[in-house]
Specification:
Length: about 210
């Protein structure tokens, strides 16, 4: 992807791009991530994790138990990190509200690594549209999608909302929002791969 395309991205599109960039940088020729490369990724992106913890996370992420992590499996880890960060944010928010009804709570982890930056972007988009109740109504989701992923039609948005609303309560919690994000990221994988390959070819031609 060229610099201008990155600048034109919305925060949600940027979060997808970041997740793809992390995965692409550590995968092997088989387009999957080995245990050793996974350990290296965690040291860079989640530096608080020990090697023993990294191995445990790898086992959790390697859903098909083939000894590698593919993009869909990696996105399971990514969305799990986002959910964990959001829960931490809600805890901080509750503490601030107890201290002062006017206190504002900053989002957790201000983007120290690419993965942290991407998960914070995901939380920021959700919180900006959830109107204080930590859930998205169908209308709030429609507005969010129009701003963040404008290429989707109204029918697409309706279908995404219906699929993500797992408990069928007519609203979307953050975990359900992450399910939607996971689906979008996985469906976009081929397109982003093509753009990244095109950009790499252009850089090679210029050098």
């Amino acid at each position: 992807m060229c610099e201008q395309e990155c600048l034109d991205m919305t925060p949600l599109e940027m979060a997808v791009g970041c997740s793809f960039g992390i995965f692409r940088s550590m995968r092997g020729d088989n387009k999957k991530v080995s245990l050793e490369d996974f350990r290296s990724m965690l040291r860079e992106q989640l530096p608080g994790e020990s090697q023993a913890s990294a191995d445990e996370i790898f086992s959790f992420t390697d859903l098909d138990e083939d000894g590698y992590v593919d993009y869909k499996e990696f996105m399971v880890l990514f969305t799990a990190c986002a959910v964990s960060n959001h829960e931490h944010y809600l805890e901080l928010k509750a503490q601030r509200q107890q201290q002062s009804s006017e206190a504002q709570c900053a989002l957790p982890m201000g983007g120290r690594t690419i993965m942290e930056f991407a998960t914070v972007a995901l939380i920021s988009v959700f919180e900006a549209h959830a109107c204080g109740d930590d859930k998205l109504s169908k209308e709030e989701f429609r507005v969010l999608m129009k701003e963040q992923l404008p290429g989707f039609t109204q029918e697409d948005v309706e279908e995404l909302f219906s699929c993500a609303d797992e408990n069928k309560d007519g609203s979307m919690e953050f975990k359900e929002f992450c399910t939607m994000f996971f689906t979008f990221a996985c469906l976009s994988y081929g397109l982003i791969e093509g753009l990244a390959d095109k950009y790499s070819q252009q850089k090679q031609q210029q050098s």
